[in-house]
Amino acid sequence: xxxxxxxxxxxxxxxxxxxxxxxxxxxxxxxxxxxxxxxxxxxxxxxxxxxxxxxxxxxxxxxxxxxxxxxxxxxxxxxxxxxxxxxxxxxxxxxxxxxxxxxxxxxxxxxxxxxxxxxxxxxxxxxxxxxxxxxxxxxxxxxxxxxxxxxxxxxxxxxxxxxxxxxxxxxxxxxxxxxxxxxxxxxxxxxxxxxxxxxxxxxxxxxxxxxxxxxxxxxxxxxxxxxxxxxxxxxxxxxxxxxxxxxxxxxxxxxxxxxxxxxxxxxxxxxxxxxxxxxxxxxxxxxxxxxxxxxxxxxxxx
Length: 302
Ligand code: CP
Ligand code: NVA
Prior knowledge:
By secondary structure, the protein is α/β, with parallel strands linked by helices. The protein has twelve helices and nine strands.
C-alpha cells in the first residue's frame, strides 16, 4: 500500500526531502504564478485556535496551485461538541484530499493522521509548528545561502512550539542553537535531550551569552495561545526582551526573526522589529511559498 504523506514534524524527515521541499519553494516563489498541479484537489483546514498567516497562506497556496479549500472552525464542528477526533478524521477523509489542522494537544494531530486516510498537515500544536519553521529556514537560506554552521539564539520562552521545530531542524541542517530562557520556562527535558543527540543545542538562563556572536536572533510571544499563566510569564520574560542593545551582541550581519504575531514593546521593541536586520515580513511571505511546496510533497508531486 502506498504510504500516506503526512507533514507532522520535521524530525520525521531526512535532509534530502526537506531540501527538495525548500528548493521547490524557491522555484514557486520566483516567478510566482497560477498553476494547475492540484486541480481537482480540496484541502480542508480545521482551526481550533486563531490564525492570520497560516489561514491566508494555505488558502492562497491551494488556490494558486489550482485546488480548493474549505475552512472550518473546530468550535463550529461536531468535533467541538463531542464527536471524536478519529471519527471526524474518517469522515473528512471521505470528502476531501488533504487535511490541515491547528489544534492544542499534539496527540490530536497524530490521532487524526492515524484515521484520516489522507495526508494530514500540522498547522501548529502546543508542541510544534513545522510549517512556520520551514518558512523560517527558507528565509535564513535566502540571507546566508547555507544553514550549515549557523549559530541561532533562541530568546525568551524555552517551552515553545516554534522552538521545538527549530530544534528538530538543527539536527537535519547542521546548525547550533543556544537557548536562553528562565529556569521555570526551560525547554521540555525529553524534547531537548532528543534534539541534543543530533545537534549542538545548549540551554541556559543567560540571554547575553546566547546572543553573543549569533547569526540569527529568534524570539516569540511571551504567552502562546494555549498558555494560561500570562501574568507570571510576563514577569519572568520581561528581562528577555530583544532591544537594539541586545541585537548589538549578535554578529553585525545577524538577522532578527519572529514567527508573528509579535507583541511590540513586550518580547521585541519597535526599533528591532522595524530595523534593517528584521526579516519578519519575509518569513511571513515565505509561508505561502513553502506551503505550496509542502502541499505538492503531500500530494506526491515532489
Ligand atoms: N505564525 C503564524 O502561524 O501566524 P498565525 O497564527 O497568524 O497563523
Ligand atoms: N508560540 C505561538 C506561535 C504563534 C504562531 C503560539 O502558539 O501562540
